[in-house]
Structure formats: C-alpha cells, structure tokens
Design a protein that fits this description.
The longest helix has 44 residues, at 167-210. This protein has a domain at 4-150 and 183-205. The chain is mainly α. Helices cover 45% and strands 10% of the residues. The N and C termini lie far apart (132 Å). The strands form two sheets. Strands 2-3-4 form a three-stranded antiparallel beta sheet. A two-stranded parallel ribbon has the order 1-5.
Length: 271
C-alpha cells in the first residue's frame, strides 16, 4: 500500500492507484460461550461501575487546585484508566448484543433518551430476561422502529464486590472474555488506518498527475509478438510431390536430332 512518502515519487503504475475497501469491524469472528448471558451481565455492570468512577474523578479534578501537580497527574491517570476500561467493556457488550439481535436471540424492548444529549438514543435490549442498555445504531433503529418507553436503569455498582464477591476472579474472567475481541479489533483498526492513508495518497497522486507533476506508466504488453513465419512456397509439400510438380513444370525434353552429313566421294574417272 502507498504511504505519505510515496508522494515524493514522480512515476506510478496503474495497479498501485487502486482504492482499497476498509474492513468492517462488524464481521469479526467471535465465539459464543455457554455462559454468555452471565458474562454480558458482569461486563455491563463493570462498564457502569468504571463509567461512574470516571465521572467521579473527572469532577474531583475540576475542583482541584492547578498547582497541585502531582495529585492532578495521579487523578488524570485514573480518569484515563476508567474511561478506557468502560469504553472496551461497552464496546464488546454492544458488539455481542448486535450479533444476538441479528440471530433473533435478543429483542429490542424500546428506546430511551440520553439524560443530557437529547439527540442521543439508547436501545433497551432484552436477552435471557435481563435488560441491557446499548447505543442505538442506525442498523438497530432500522430493524426495530423507534418506540420510546419508560425505563429506570439500575444504579451503577459502587464497588466491584457489588458485582461479584471475588473481585480478582471477576476481573480475570472479564479480561479473558474481552481479550480475543480486543486483539482482532486492534489488528483491523490498524489495517484500516493504513488503508485510509493509502486511499488519501491515491487521491493526491491523481491530482499530481492531472497537474503534470507526476506521470502514470502505461501498462506494457507482456505477450511476446509472434514472429511471422517465412513464406516459403511449397514448404509443407512432400518431397515426392515436389518432384512431380517440378517435372510437370519442366518443358518436355525434345529428342536430339541426329544430323547426318552427306559425304562427298571423289569419283575416279577412268582415264
């Protein structure tokens, strides 16, 4: 694929300038464990807990004095950790719920609005008797038309123990659940960044070619030209036929004429 450094070149082949389609994250291959329902519940509640921690520390940072550098730096680290953790957990939860909706194993009960962002909508998705709150994508809304319902979301767990008594087991289980998806997601997003750069460079190269700042190499015919055979007349005619033809073309030989010269004899006259 082309990179930004490719713009320094002056010649390009036509095959290099083809646009590449990005990979669709929705097509990631994932496994469906037997305890998927329980894993999704734990993942959802952990995401709520981490999001609540993110909000709490963000508010705390806003009230902290600017000159308190060390403590502010420490809180910033916690904010980043909780924000990233909540994002990953919500991402895999939403991904699985979308798959379950497509397979007909989950249903959309209705929609709710964001408490602050009025244009943001969430879908209440029911799976095995548990109601999950997921971002309402255009695909979900298309399959399940908007129907706003009264829904009171449970309070976010304040501690990890509120989710599971064994905190270490909870975190390791969710980590193992997220890891395969996370690794595939990173590979695809990295590849898509390369594809995005390639397509942007292709566009700029065509502009350079149009402005005669670069040239497009014409494809060369790789097939060797067939040498025309020498026109040798009667080259494929067998020898016997050639001889016959030659004989026919020759004029018949005339028989040699024998010229008989008359001799003159001297007569002896009798005296």
């Amino acid at each position: 694929m082309l990179q930004r450094s490719s713009l320094e070149r002056k010649e390009f082949k036509e095959d290099e300038l083809k646009l590449i389609k990005k990979f669709d994250v929705k097509n990631l291959a994932v496994i469906f464990p037997e305890n998927l329902n329980q894993l999704l519940i734990w993942t959802s509640e952990l995401a709520q807990h981490n999001h609540a921690q993110f909000i709490e520390f963000s508010n705390k940072l806003g009230l902290m004095a600017e000159d308190n550098v060390e403590e502010r730096e420490e809180i910033n680290k916690k904010i980043k950790f909780y924000r990233n953790s909540a994002f990953e957990e919500n991402q895999i939860k939403d991904f699985y719920l979308k798959k379950l909706l497509d397979q007909g194993e989950a249903t959309v009960r209705g929609y709710i609005k964001h408490p602050i962002k009025q244009n943001t909508k969430y879908a209440v998705i029911s799976y095995h008797g548990y109601d999950f709150v997921s971002f309402a994508t255009p695909e979900i809304i298309e399959k399940s038309p908007l129907n706003f319902i009264d829904f009171v979301q449970i309070e976010a767990p304040k501690t990890l123990a509120d989710i599971h008594p064994d905190e270490a087991l909870l975190l390791s289980t969710i980590k193992d659940f997220i890891k395969p998806f996370k690794e595939q997601y990173k590979k695809i997003t990295s590849k898509n960044r390369e594809i995005k750069e390639h397509n942007a460079v292709v566009h700029e190269i065509y502009i350079k070619i149009k402005n005669k700042e670069a040239t497009l190499q014409k494809p060369t015919d790789s097939k060797p030209k067939e040498s025309s055979p020498k026109s040798t007349e009667n080259s494929a005619v067998p020898v016997e036929m050639k001889q016959v033809a030659i004989q026919k073309n020759m004029a018949p030989q005339e028989k040699p004429i024998t010229v008989i010269k008359k001799r003159k004899f001297a007569l002896n006259k009798e005296k």
